[in-house]
Amino acid sequence: MKSLNLQIIISFLGLTSMLNGVFMLLAVPFSLYHNEAATTGILYAGLITIILGFCMWIFNRGAEKNLQKKEGYVIVTFGWLILSLTGTLPYILTGSIPDFTNAFFETISGYSTTGSSILNDIEAMPKGILFWRSATHWIGGMGIIVLTIAILPLLGIGGMQLFMAEAPGPSADKMHPRITETAKRLWFIYFSLTIVEFLLLKSAGMSWFDAINHAMATMSTGGFSTKNASVAYWNGMPMVQYIITIFMLIAGANFVMTYFAFKGKWQKVFNNEEFKWYFFGAIGLVVLLSFLILYFQDPNLQTSVNHPMPWGKTESAFRHGAFQVFAILTTTGFVTADYTMWNSFATMIIFSLFFIGGSAGSTSGGVKIVRHIVMIKSSVLELKKLLHPNAIIPVRYGGKAIQQTIVFNILSFFVLYMLIFILSSVLLTFLGLDFISAVGATTSSLGNVGPAFGSLSPVDNYSELSNTAKWFCAFLMLIGRLELFTVLILFTPYFWKKN
């Protein structure tokens, strides 16, 4: 493989920066409307980012357009870094988050759709900054959709080839037209669903500003809220929470399945193996968790299920159970209650969801359900092979045999994921966190969830972490968001060798 084409890399990063700057400028009207002093800082941040991106693009626009795998890995990883570095400018130039470490943490938490925050008083922040904070979710969420549908299969990352055959568009042998067509359709679906959720939340009683921010955070499975109490602020407005729950369910599903649903091809949706595991598995967990909340609720949280009507406690238990199952399963990270105060069994169920993640081809983080399906099937086959060692039995997914290389890729991913989880948890204890908080911070950051356990529970945040711990958690957010291999391969010496 030839050496890296730096010109095409810088050109792509320049385009990324320009688009990022344009999104920053969208926050200016919100700031102007509320007559905020932060308007100038947001404006300057957007212009600086656009100018920087334009210079990177204009001086490298004549680059050879043949993009190789090596350039793909570098562009994906450094694209997220460019977004995060330039994304700190609105926070810093407005003085909202003057410290660079904190600003970077908040920004990469946004773009990676993690939702971890260092802000102690969110409601005191300028409205323009809150909009920008939610916009980082929305940008990162759609970026992930295009990345996992269109780019990662080309790079052979993480078994993403499994759902590539489902993607709408021309035939598989016309990859570039397919990518363009797929990206356009997914952007349209993503944008349309965001608008629909915004209108529904507004009609359910949210202010227009809260509605647009929560719609962006929901569809991106990000979890940044405009309220200190997150969605628990609307515990007295059940319809708001039901709407967000439904859209978290949608956002956690493969967006290709959402496309088929838009086309009325419901049979394709419910015949999809991953969707069946995702939907019916989540429903089962909702029923179980609702039962635990209703009958074995921690006394400290009884006020959250009190209701004047006889059926009120049942409804409230179901609502909180459903909301938290989908919030954690889809790695959105919104909260309506402090799940660490529930009984141990319920809390353990929530903790296990941190390791599952949503569907492949969604905005969710985590391991992804499709990988769990393949790993379970592969393990069952190994048991069969103990009885029939000479039998050739392929792993099947969706009724079709999976290439052994994909199975190995998925198994390698999971082994690496768990190894990083263990080593990172140990390192965070060295950096000052207690055991439960270290495990929680690792699972949350690596799985892009947001709230965690211990001192990082839903009623706390990440502001008390040391700067070193914040940078390390930011690194975990990045590698978790980009499917591990995409980033970690850059740390291998053979990647940089000229072949």
Automatic annotation (TrEMBL):
Keywords: Cell inner membrane, Cell membrane, Ion transport, Membrane, Metal-binding, Potassium, Potassium transport, Transmembrane, Transmembrane helix, Transport
TM stretches of this protein: 12-30, 42-60, 72-93, 138-165, 186-209, 239-262, 277-296, 345-367, 406-431, 469-496
Superkingdom, natural source: Bacteria
Binding site for K(+): 113-114, 222, 331-332, 448-449
Record-linked InterPro entries: Cat_transpt (IPR003445), TrkH (IPR004772)
Bilayer disposition of the protein: Multi-pass membrane protein
Cellular component per GO, a single term: plasma membrane
Cellular localization per UniProt: Cell inner membrane
Molecular function GO labels: metal ion binding; potassium:chloride symporter activity
UniProt-listed PANTHER family: TRK SYSTEM POTASSIUM UPTAKE PROTEIN TRKG-RELATED
Family per similarity comment: Belongs to the TrkH potassium transport family.
Protein name per UniProt: Potassium transporter
Annotated source species: Urechidicola croceus
